[in-house]
Amino acid sequence: xxxxxxxxxxxxxxxxxxxxxxxxxxxxxxxxxxxxxxxxxxxxxxxxxxxxxxxxxxxxxxxxxxxxxxxxxxxxxxxxxxxxxxxxxxxxxxxxxxxxxxxxxxxxxxxxxxxxxxxxxxxxxxxxxxxxxxxxxx
Length: 138
Prior knowledge:
Strand order of the largest sheet: 1-2-3-4
Number of helices: 3
CATH superfamily of the domain at 26-118: Ribonuclease Inhibitor
Number of strands: 4
CATH class of the domain at 26-118: Alpha Beta
Order of helices and strands: EHEHEHE
Shape: globular
């Protein structure tokens, strides 16, 4: 390999690199326009990743094409509890009840930054201004 001066790699038409490959070994992962059906794949990968000393993920941003439910947020935070999370951004939450903030605080007590974007309805594909269903603090 020392004698290679130029290397060109061509992918076949329609080739899409797997966005989840080696996700758990990376420190920062942004996934944009993610179909909500892929959330189960992300959660499974987080649970089945290598031992805790190989888990480097500290920053995660998930931008969902279709909104996800509060219960799915809870499952995601459970999967993230053994990672050294510092920043979590979830764009595309449908419910947004205070219990999800409690779940996040319980499962990721060392989290430094939390950003949640609420969707106004299940048909919304982009986050816009809308009212949260309840105050986040009681």
